[in-house]
Design a protein that fits this description.
Order of helices and strands: EHHEHEHEHHEHEHEHHEHH
Strand content: 5-15%
Helix content: 40-55%
Number of helices: 12
Shape: globular
Structural class: alpha/beta
CATH class: Alpha Beta
CATH superfamily: Metal-dependent hydrolases
Distance between the termini: 12 Å
Largest sheet: 5 strands, parallel
Length: about 270
């Protein structure tokens, strides 16, 4: 089985604009490999041999959690091959109600991107939301580290996540981009003894060429999960990188592709 734990799609009527806006924010440094729609993701999964994808949403402003909730109600039963994670904004006064409604729908986790959402990940407001989610057995999924589209923000810095992981020790937390794209020396120093999960999204090829990233993987191979960040990562390319790699053993490939994430989600 192959599970891509980190993908994104958008409502069909806004997908083109959403993909173009994100690409423009990076000044052309990232390329979309799908058009951001449900149909294109399913097609990409077929080409890559991906059995199941987790779609991550982001409430980029207070109040957008309600819009995400409405959209999820429309798409959540469309296929068994996609699991949707919700999102809320820490500054939304209705986020507790939204979280409870998402739980009733069977949502298993929440995604946060502190830089895009405009809040420090270790702030009091954020902690209240995280506590409410964790108390209801939801998984917390974070963008972590530097983001090329928002280079001046430190809201998702490794230093802030070091504090969060200390304060939420032994919680169900996934840090995207192997903890922070290209910051693996800092991750080893600040997060090395703090247990969480890491995904390979958008950084797999760079990880495999980086000594510190491979050291992080070796010491956490039971906590690394496969993710691509589709449409910003090519699912087939990422699947083939692992399948054809001599670095990973067969057991390690199985852990990456499905065994580790199955410890966190229900199918």
């Amino acid at each position: 089985m192959i599970i891509d734990a980190h993908t994104h799609i958008y409502p069909d009527h806004v997908a083109e604009k959403a993909v173009r806006t994100i690409a423009d924010n990076t000044k052309g440094l990232v390329e979309a490999h799908t058009n951001g729609t449900y149909d294109n993701l399913i097609s990409s999964m077929e080409t890559a041999g991906v059995d199941l994808s987790i779609v991550l949403t982001i409430a980029t402003s207070p109040g957008q959690g309600c819009g995400i909730l409405k959209w999820l109600k429309q798409v959540i039963g469309r296929t068994s091959r996609i699991i949707y994670f919700g999102s809320v904004h820490p500054y939304d006064s209705n986020n507790t109600d939204i979280i409870h409604e998402m739980i009733e729908m069977g949502i298993q986790g929440l995604k946060f991107h502190p830089a895009y959402q405009g809040f420090p990940v270790d702030s009091k407001e954020a902690y209240k939301v995280f506590e409410a989610a964790l108390q209801n057995d939801l998984l917390l999924y974070f963008h972590s580290g530097f983001d090329i589209s928002m280079p001046e923000s430190d809201y998702a810095s490794i230093e802030r996540f070091a504090k969060l992981l200390k304060d939420f020790d032994n919680s169900k937390i996934i840090l995207a981009h192997a903890g922070g794209n290209g910051e693996w020396d800092k991750i080893l120093d600040l997060l090395g003894d703090k247990k969480c999960y890491y995904d390979t999204s958008f950084v797999l090829e760079r990880m495999m060429l980086n000594k510190q990233a491979m050291e992080l993987y070796r010491s956490n191979e039971d906590n690394f999960i496969f993710g691509t960040d589709s449409p910003w990562g090519d699912q087939k390319k990422y699947v083939d990188l692992i399948k054809n790699s001599d670095f990973f053993s067969r057991e390690q490939k199985e852990k990456l592709f499905y065994k580790n994430i199955m410890k966190l989600i229900k199918i």
